[in-house]
Amino acid sequence: IVAVYVNAAPEAQRLTLQFETGQRGWKLRDVTPYITSDRDGDELRRAPAMGAVKEYELPARSVVTLVARFR
User: Fold this and answer.
1) Fewer Cβ neighbours under 10 Å: the N or C end of the chain?
2) pLDDT tens digits, residue range 5-23?
């Protein structure tokens, strides 16, 4: 699953992640963020993959693409 989030606020925003896979029985393996912001080096910067997280903090003034992989 790929989701894009926009945070136009001047402060970070907490995001709660919830993936419904229906009756497929998939388990979340990891989530990889790709971050674009007004910080140097943040031009679709791939951040380290996170385990099966339930929350993520969107940086201030950013566009973040989260790529969730399942097993």
Assistant:
1) C
2) 999 999 999 999 988 777 8
Q: Which single residue is written with the structure tokens 């388990």?
A: 27
From first CA to last CA, the distance across the chain in angstroms is 12
Give the integer Cα–Cα distance in Å for 47 and 51: 12
The string over 26-65, giving b where at least 16 C-beta atoms fall within 10 Å of a residue's C-beta and e elsewhere, is eebeebebbbbbeeeebeeeeeeeeeeeeebebbebbbbe
Q: Measuring CA to CA, how many Å separate 19 from each of 10, 16, 29, 37, 40?
A: 27, 10, 12, 25, 31
The pTM score is 0.88
